[in-house]
Design goal:
Number of strands: 10
Largest sheet: 10 strands, mixed
Number of helices: 4
Radius of gyration: 23 Å
Distance between the termini: 54 Å
């Protein structure tokens, strides 16, 4: 019988554990942006405009907002987003857009996204990854309540004394998924450079009596505001996602995968 000291036994156990761990990760390498050469874009952000109103109830932290929506797919915001992403990625990747049933992505989890990706028909030109532009739900940075806002929308908060705050918001997220299995590669919210929810102050004249009463002029103003918010946040979101180089002088911006 060969005897080993406690130190030698512990060393061999650690060495064996490291070998097993290395073999595990060798067979389970997670994809990263560095492996990507081609990307398919799916934009499912711009088919609905939300109208969120928080009345002056004194209990806004527990009472839900008065919410309604307007179908705005004819504004072609997703087409604008796709064109903008293509312009920014086209020099580095082979890029194509994918037509989808937008309702599949109206509400989502990472599990449902992976399932939808696996169920998509294989593109005529196969790709390495899918880049999804989706609604995201963020803290109410307009009225600073405990509620969240999601997607594209117009916001109103009634305050004591007849004071009212209006805002236009664009709360969305970029999600990068592996094309073969739908595994998550990276996920980042689109935020302003200081980490806040993207929103713009709006005039009271933009708020309609009902969503269906929105005039052509109001529609045009809202569409312009949405485009401004997306254009001002999309480039930074692509950089924090890791598929566009960060400027050398910019400090690291922390995102999240949640």
């Amino acid at each position: 019988m060969i005897a080993f000291s406690g130190a030698r036994v512990a060393h061999r156990v650690r060495s064996a554990a490291l070998c097993v761990t290395a073999l595990f990760f060798a067979g389970n390498v997670q994809p990263s942006p560095a492996h990507i050469r081609s990307i398919a874009i799916i934009s499912a952000l711009g088919d609905t405009c939300m109208f969120e109103r928080l009345p002056d109830s004194g209990f806004e932290w527990i009472a839900p907002p008065v919410a309604s929506f307007l179908e705005i797919s004819d504004w072609d915001i997703d087409g604008d987003v796709t064109n903008s992403v293509t312009k920014q990625l086209g020099a580095r990747y082979q890029v194509q857009s994918i037509a989808i049933e937008r309702q599949d992505f109206d509400s989502w989890t990472y599990g449902s996204l992976a399932r939808h990706i696996r169920e998509l028909p294989i593109p005529e030109t196969p790709v390495d990854a899918y880049l999804l532009v989706l609604r995201d739900w963020r803290h109410d940075g307009i009225g600073n309540t405990s509620h969240q806002v999601g997607g594209l929308g117009l916001y109103r908060r009634d305050r004591p004394g007849g004071r009212v705050r209006f805002g236009v918001f664009a709360s969305y997220r970029l999600v990068l998924l592996d094309a073969d299995n739908g595994h998550l590669i990276a996920s980042r919210p689109a935020l302003l450079p200081d980490g806040r929810l993207p929103w713009l102050a709006a005039p009271s004249s933009l708020w309609p009596r009902t969503p269906n009463d929105l005039t052509s002029a109001q529609q045009g103003e809202l569409r312009t505001d949405f485009k401004t918010l997306i254009d001002s946040t999309l480039p930074l979101a692509l950089k924090t996602l890791g598929i566009v180089p960060m400027p050398r002088h910019r400090s690291h911006i922390v995102g999240d995968n949640e």
